[in-house]
Amino acid sequence: MKKIKIVSSALITAIILTSCATTSESANSQATNSHSKDKAPKEIVIEESPEDIFIKSLEGLSITKVSSPKEITKGKKFSEPFVFSASNADQTPAEGLSLTLEYPAAKAEGKITFEKTVLTTDSEGKITFTPEDTSFAAKTSIKVYPTPLNDDESLLKRLEPFTASADYKVKSDIASKGAVLFVWDFNEKDRPVNNSYNIQAEFRGRGITLVGNGPIGETSYIGKPKALYKDTYDIIGGSAYGYLIYGTIKFEEPVTALEDESGYYCILKAEIEAVNMKNGSLVYSSITTYESKGKNWNECVSNGKDKLSELVVSDIMYGL
Length: 320
Known about the structure:
Layout: H1 9-38, H2 50-57, E1 62-67, E2 72-73, E3 82-87, E4 98-108, E5 111-120, E6 126-129, E7 138-146, H3 153-158, E8 164-171, H4 174-177, E9 179-186, E10 192-195, H5 197-205, E11 211-213, H6 225-236, E12 243-257, E13 264-276, E14 282-294, H7 297-319
Parallel strand pairs: 2-8, 9-11, 9-12
Antiparallel strand pairs: 1-3, 3-6, 4-5, 4-7, 7-8, 9-10, 12-13, 13-14
């Protein structure tokens, strides 16, 4: 007798479905692989910014100072212009190049304001510039660089390799107009001792003789510039001297012995201001410090005051 195996219809159905699913997945996989082979990967393109393109266009460019005028006294005119040139990588003149020039244009309460002007190079790759206003003293510089797309600080920083500069020096007219002094030396206990001899001596050493102590010598005026000016003006008027220079020289740090016992050390600080004797307007302000050393107390302090006075007067000569 033959035995017949009976397979349920549910089982048959499951087998058929599984087979179909496997076949379908295989087909999909093949289709996907085929599609992937046909599709090439996309190339990533990084677009350059306008600033990057601008900087690249300057490759090989060189900007240099050709000549600059000697220093003058304020109120006088420069005898010759500032001249700059631009050349390409092959050393040929960069004709028709737009250059920006920054120059000191004004001064108020001791602070210089700079302005910009755009100039175009000539057939020799050169530009020339002569400042018109020399009514204020200054010791600074004029800068020239390719005219940027914008004034963004990061772009201006990238232009530094393509920037040229020239010294701009206009001395004070203190030598001809003169000044009265009210600059007090303080001791280590922060008490005023006397009008600074060192400041006056430094002016005299530079051949400026129309500078001396003012008519007021009372310490009660220290820190009271308006009262000092008013009472000085009442005594000498506003035409005998051009300026009133006042301030203090103090010990920022007392004289101390060095750890290696080689001498002494101190820090001196000068706080100086000046006003126009005609109208009392503030025309100069500075803070100068100097670290001094010496074999003994006297040498440390003496050297410090001499050097500090030199720095102060040098700054006044171009800052007043």
